[in-house]
Amino acid sequence: GMSRDLEGRHVMVTAGPTVEPIDPVRYLTNHSSGKTGYAIARAASLRGADVTLISGPVPLPAPEGVRLVPVRTALDMMAAAEAAFRDADIAVFAAAVADMRPKKAAEHKLKKGVADAELGTIELVENPDILATLGARKEHQVVVGYAAETHDVVGNAQKKLLAKNADFVVANDVREGRAFGADVNEVLFVDAEGVEELPLMTKERLADAVLNKALQYLR
Ligand code: PMT
């Protein structure tokens, strides 16, 4: 059975959104609820793994027995993920990381009528790609990427698999409000061998399916 099949293994998971400050009261973010990443962290812990969960701000409690590293920005998530990756046997990148951040977070609240130019044109710069950066450093780690797509799900997932040096990618179709925030999901596993379609299932069951797949790659 799969009861304690991750005993002695280190699993790291990124989860939730990142938030990128514009000023002390405003930020850019996305609809990730953290449910996917938290379900994986919980399942891995129940299966005996030593789990580090690096999470953007979400209103979920830390799963029991899991080391929670709370972060806000993509830069913070990058630093925490770098630290955890070295010792990880399985690294799951389920977070919805903001691709861009405001170039400069204003120190004081940008006031309407005073700072209209700044509020009307927020200059953005690129965030580091956490998965691609750590994928390039892969040694013994099994690297699991996610892809949230609105079209050409398989094609885009295959591109991410190669570009980010993942072992496999869990691909979501995020049209019509699916995946983000829901309790269930229907995904594809995309790896060098091909594509595996999974049926609609709860994120809890999906977490075990992702861990089962990752176990096949353990070196
Ligand atoms: O949190 P939930 O509400 O349960 O929703 C789950 C989810 C839909 C957010 C999740 O299943 C998911 O698909 N996460 C990835 C969303 C995403 O941002 O996809 P992407 O195609 O932009 O990124 C591809 C991969 O690169 C992902 O593994 C992502 O974590 C990673 N990435 C992306 C950008 C970046 N700067 N750093 C990264 O590590």
From TrEMBL:
One of its GO terms (molecular function) is phosphopantothenate--cysteine ligase activity. Its EC number is 4.1.1.36, 6.3.2.5. Pathway: Cofactor biosynthesis; coenzyme A biosynthesis; CoA from (R)-pantothenate: step 2/5; Cofactor biosynthesis; coenzyme A biosynthesis; CoA from (R)-pantothenate: step 3/5. It comes from the Bacteria. The keyword Ligase applies. It catalyses: N-[(R)-4-phosphopantothenoyl]-L-cysteine + H(+) = (R)-4'-phosphopantetheine + CO2; (R)-4'-phosphopantothenate + L-cysteine + CTP = N-[(R)-4-phosphopantothenoyl]-L-cysteine + CMP + diphosphate + H(+). Binds 1 FMN per subunit. Keywords: Decarboxylase, Flavoprotein, FMN, Ligase, Lyase, Magnesium, Metal-binding, Multifunctional enzyme. One of its GO terms (biological process) is pantothenate catabolic process. Residues 6-216 form the DNA/pantothenate metabolism flavoprotein C-terminal domain. Its cofactor is Mg(2+); FMN. Residues 11-219 are annotated as: Phosphopantothenate--cysteine ligase. Catalyzes two sequential steps in the biosynthesis of coenzyme A. In the first step cysteine is conjugated to 4'-phosphopantothenate to form 4-phosphopantothenoylcysteine. In the second step the latter compound is decarboxylated to form 4'-phosphopantotheine. Catalyzes two steps in the biosynthesis of coenzyme A. In the first step cysteine is conjugated to 4'-phosphopantothenate to form 4-phosphopantothenoylcysteine, in the latter compound is decarboxylated to form 4'-phosphopantotheine. In the N-terminal section; belongs to the HFCD (homo-oligomeric flavin containing Cys decarboxylase) superfamily. In the C-terminal section; belongs to the PPC synthetase family. This is Coenzyme A biosynthesis bifunctional protein CoaBC. It comes from Enteroscipio rubneri. The gene is coaBC.
